[in-house]
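Mods, move this if it's the wrong board.
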Amino acid sequence: MSENSLRSTRWGWAIRCLVIPACLILLSDQRQAVAGKDELTIGITQFPSTLNPNIDAMAAKSYVLGATLRPFTVYDADWKLVCLLCVKLPSIEDGDAVPVDLPDGKKGIDLTFTIRPDASWGDGVPVTTEDVLFTYQVGRDPASAVANGELYRRITDITVKDDKTFTLRVDKLTFDYAAINDFVLLPAHLERSAFNEPAQYRVRTRYDNDPTNPGLYNGPYRISEIAAGSHISLEPNPSWQGPKPHFRRVTIRAIENTAALEANLLSGTIDMVAGELGFPLEDAIAFEKRHRDAYQIVYKPSLVYEHVDCNLDSPVLADRRVREALILGLDRDAMTGQLFAGQQPVADSFVNPLDSGYSTDLPHYRHDPERAAALLEAAGWRKQANGPRIDANGNRLTLELMTTAGNRSRELVEQVLQSQWRRIGVEVRLRNEPARVLFGQTLRHRQFQLAMYAWISSPENVPRSILHSREIPGPGNSFAGQNLSGFNNPETDRLLDALEVELDPARRHSLWAELQRLYATELPSLPLYFRSSVFVLPKWLSGVRPTGNQYPSTLWITDWKPEQ
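Not the wrong board. Structure tokens:
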């Protein structure tokens, strides 16, 4: 998971106008041009591997679909759960969320939702409970390869009251029971035929084969043009009954090289750079020093966790001593200080200190190359006078590190990791791929040793999809899980299961602390840092509000408008 004649505003009219009436005319012309601005071009650094909302978890796709689809529930910029497609959030107090006793002795809950009465797909077909039932069918089928299958497995039954109202029976009473954020509807009238063979749904979905079909979208915009790897254009959805969008055309351009992203911004090819998938922090800081007077620069600390996943099926990385040696061999404080001016804090686990689930009671790995060397020796990797360490059979300690190609920040971090690991006798080879290939194929099929990327979460988000053993992608689940490291730990599974159903905040915080300690001890991933998002906006654009969580600002794109 995007310039125009108005760029002339940077020149400063008052200084250049020697005759006051002429200056006023020019200023008036400028304001009229801004007021009449009806197109917006956005730069992002990735192109989606698919546009189907339920296949693959990728920020680029979420950014595009934020303008074109309405989830039932999301977290907003205040980190509050809100309804988008539903009329209201169900609650136990209001009686539309009812705890139930299940046959296995556990507690479940019945949640009643009502779809907004004015909701319809872009071809005019109303959004109804038929779409709910079809989406549930797709989500429950193990052959469908949906990324968010866990939610659909938890929903054991759906009772339809009418075309707009339905009740979900969920097999767990969780502390965030009203959040069904991953239940993103598919249009049954269009997608049902593509699902005739569930195992082929991934390649037959209309979101990829007919992406400009207006009936695929129920948000304020619909996709009107798509050029694979290049750009996606949006136009207002005529069936949308909510607040009208202010732009007649929005183009989201994928520019994977961040140097090229800056060049396109300065040349006027794009109007803004999305914070969700835009400039790395160090590039943004340098950009602001040079161009602060011409743009709005908005910094937003976020729940974006940059890390290196270790494929635990790799015999070398399966040894926990090697993983600990790798983290001890890194001087992450120096790296973030030098590259990011200390603005992106070092991570000790996957939970950000800004999050209510954060705990300080966990291992904190500081740079300790001597301890790292001792661990590698104990693991059977002997030091050589020259070159990397070797084992008893003469095999070199060589690992392959991957990340998204063209991302200058990550490529710099890669070089730092490679250099620091070389000092403890670990040889690292770099092999990067375009984001759509890395996320759509390589990581999904776990064809890597070390992979550097980010997880984007919502507040107090239980990381079941990335840590539970049932979420390991493989042929048995059509590679649909997100536990890419292959972490299989019964105690982690127990904590995840207990955490979700603990309603008492104090006891839940204790479970969060246990989970973070275990994660930081076992190190299925190597924590790096928490990112800050940087939005570079034109002076004339208002209403863009960064969320700092996994839900993109485009979900509120109808608030974006040109200002005089």
